[in-house]
Design a protein that fits this description.
flat; 0% strand; 79% helix; mainly alpha
């Protein structure tokens, strides 16, 4: 074999080895991340089992099935409270419920509806203005009655 053939074979083999090492590094990094996630989850569950009694833990798991984001928020809050020493004994279900109620009042979304009416022009009379609102209300009432009728027929 010539030197150029040997050199090309070496380069190919080196490229293969580099590709293999890169391919192995990615699964190793992924495995390390997965292991870290597992350890974090185990630590979180351990702390929560120390902070909550069985009934409270069951309620939190039930909430997680319905509203996972709310359960995660409560879990994080409980973990923070435990780490700062705000929780000295196990919380029972009643304590968890009061904590949830307090959290609900803080994060409750309020919906407001504002109806903007056109400004009253000087040339418009009060009668025209009232007629405008009456037509709006009548349209809403008609829509409500129609919708209820359609649902009751189904």
């Amino acid at each position: 074999m010539e030197d150029s053939d040997l050199e090309s074979i070496r380069e190919q083999r080196l490229a293969e080895l580099r590709a293999q090492s890169k391919g192995q590094a990615v699964p190793q990094e992924e495995a390390a991340r997965e292991e870290a996630r597992k350890r974090e989850t185990e630590m979180k569950n351990s702390i929560l089992s120390q902070v909550l009694d069985q009934n409270a833990r069951a309620r939190l798991n039930s909430i997680a099935l319905v509203k996972p984001e709310k359960a995660k928020m409560v879990e994080n809050m409980l973990l923070q409270m435990a780490q700062t020493g705000q929780i000295t004994s196990k919380l029972d279900e009643g304590s968890l419920i009061s904590l949830l109620e307090r959290l609900n009042t803080q994060t409750q979304k309020k919906t407001t509806v504002k109806v903007k009416s056109p400004p009253l022009q000087s040339h418009q009379s009060t009668r025209q203005y009232l007629f405008y609102f009456y037509s709006l209300i009548e349209g809403v009432m008609h829509w409500t009655v129609t919708t209820k009728t359609e649902h009751s027929n189904s």
